[in-house]
Design a protein that fits this description.
With about 325 residues, the protein is mostly helical. The protein has helices at about 1-30, 35-40, 45-55, 60-75, 85-120, 125-140, 145-160, 175-210, 210-220, 225-260, 265-275, 280-305.
Length: about 325
């Protein structure tokens, strides 16, 4: 087990290296002078050169990249061009909002997907099965930004109610904070529940056809213990993989949803920074999201052995 964890951690290094390489040079190929973008077209040449000297923009790109990666190794993501704070402070300040939205959306997704998938598998080729499959296909087909936009428009048209526009921290007013997160969490969670529902259904159907399930039924076990105690546990491992991948999708999906619902999280920080050409912040957010995604997948892999003792890490 220890050897496996070490190997997986070592594999993270080339992944992060590739992400930093692509992110850094992608920012540099965008047309326009970085100094002019930050200071404006009418800035004097002396001011432009002072900006370049301050941020060492005249150095060759490979030198800038190596310096940036070396700073990252020390958890130093640099300073924001447009905000009077470091990139790390900007991420830490916005991080709780994104994590809160991600956690709520994941809960919504699982609360919808597991019952729908189980009912669809147990009640195969019935009205319940068809309804769950239609819902799953709708979740796969409809983009999350469409669901989020409808969740703002329809309550406003039907009930004259719109969600709170101004974000309220949980420590100030927990109820208003929760209300602000209800619709975005449902929009994200419903969009991802379709994939999980299909996976739960297909895996559970496969397990329910196994010989040991037929043996359990022949011995007179009730259907509920068979499904919950025998079938679901053996069908859940591929579902956990999907859920782990969805965490990465959720973190990326918050970029659009946070903008639509005016949530000051990492996604909105990313959009603001792209519009302002605040490259250090964009680079820092991308690398941070990649690290979270890789770390979550490592945790998911390790939990396999706890869920299914037959799995051995060699």
């Amino acid at each position: 087990m220890t050897t496996y964890i070490i190997q997986r951690i070592l594999l993270i290094i080339p992944v992060l290296f590739g992400v930093t390489l692509i992110t850094f040079f992608a920012m540099r190929v965008i047309p326009g002078d970085m100094a002019k973008v930050q200071l404006g077209e009418y800035a004097t040449e002396e001011a432009l050169q002072a900006f370049r000297d301050e941020h060492q923009l005249d150095d060759p790109l490979p030198v800038q990249y190596v310096r940036w990666v070396a700073d990252l190794a020390r958890l130093d993501m640099g300073d924001s061009f447009r905000r009077d704070q470091t990139v790390r402070d900007a991420i830490v300040r916005r991080l709780p909002v994104t994590f809160q939205l991600t956690a709520y959306a994941l809960v919504v997704s699982l609360v919808i997907a597991f019952p729908a998938g189980i009912i669809s598998a147990v009640k195969q080729d019935t009205v319940w099965d068809y309804a769950a499959r239609i819902f799953a296909m709708a979740g796969l087909a409809i983009p999350v930004f469409v669901i989020a936009s409808l969740m703002i428009m329809l309550p406003a048209l039907w009930f004259g109610w719109v969600p709170p526009i101004r974000y309220t921290p949980f420590t100030q007013d927990p109820f208003t904070n929760m209300v602000h997160f209800i619709l975005p969490a449902i929009a994200l969670g419903a969009s991802l529940a379709g994939t999980t529902t299909r996976m739960v259904r297909s895996q559970l159907l496969e397990v329910l056809r196994q010989d040991y399930i037929r043996t359990a039924r022949a011995k007179g076990l009730a259907e509920r213990p068979i499904v919950a105690g025998h079938a679901l546990r053996n069908a859940i491992i591929p579902v956990i993989t999907i859920v782990g991948l969805q965490l990465g999708v959720l973190i990326g999906g918050t970029i659009i949803v946070e903008q639509i619902f005016s949530l000051p999280g990492l996604g909105r920080l990313m959009i603001e920074s792209v519009n302002l050409r605040d490259y250090p912040v964009v680079q820092g957010v991308v690398v941070f999201m990649c690290f979270v995604y890789v770390f979550v997948n490592l945790v998911i892999d390790i939990t396999y052995g706890w869920i299914d003792p037959r799995i051995r890490y060699t």
